[in-house]
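Quick illustration, no need to memorize.
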Amino acid sequence: MFFYITDDDEVFRSMLSQIIEDEELGDVIGEADDGSFLDAHMLAMKHVDILFIDLLMPIQDGIETIRRIAPSFKGKIIMISQVESKELIGEAYSLGIEYYITKPLNRNEVLSVVQKVMERIRLERSIKDIQKSLSNVFDWNSSKEQKAPSEEKKITDWGQILLSELGIAGENGSKDLLEIIDYLYHYETKQALETGFPILKDIFTHISLKKLGPVASQDEVDRERKASEQRVRRAIYQSLNHLASLGLTDFANQKFENYASKFFDFTTVRQRMTELKQASLISSTHTRINAKKFIQVLYFEAKQLLDEGY
């Protein structure tokens, strides 16, 4: 994430920058000591995601500045001030700020607010990316109301979109993953997942039985189950490689931000990025992947998209 800080207190700007850098929230790519120096075009050119702006400044205050740049600035705004006037705070929120932080600076409050705003940005970007992908897959010329029931999207349609976003739509294990989320969707329909997520062995056994049919022997089912597990793990590992590569190229890449820490443990992603940076392109015995977490997140993300009907 890219941050820009506007405050007439140089010490405050320095302290806020230090928190952002220490907590690895992103990069502070610019500062200003008055709102009069801000321009929506300049912020767009710098790809500012989150703008911190003080309420009271000597030439142009935060309210005036937000009113001026809001029509064109696409990022999120967090206001900061010692003033706790309900009228001014209410006006700031009416102009579209996300949160209001009071001075003196509190590290925990800053972390909490910034993380919430970052999560909202990631969610919005994720939805936009998926909608963009959908335009290449589905025909949007007809409205949803005009579609016949047979044309309604299934959870596997959304799963396919997510696999494409994760860079593994063409992998051998992608078909297994789609079979898995389809099974989980019908499983949850019959019995709620509150009782616990099915164990992976049972999931793979089920999709193997479905593929081979009821006449298959136990040995055949076991062989297919193990082969399916290997295909899925290879696909998941390729997704890790894909996202780690995106992160190495551009740490602010939208897909990297949206999916890396959601589908994988952050330490795993950073470890794989380090290996790729050192040209360790072959599979590493040190990089462990959590297949169950990946499958759970894939299912719940696909189900959310299906339920929301984007």
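The first helix runs from residue 10 to 22.
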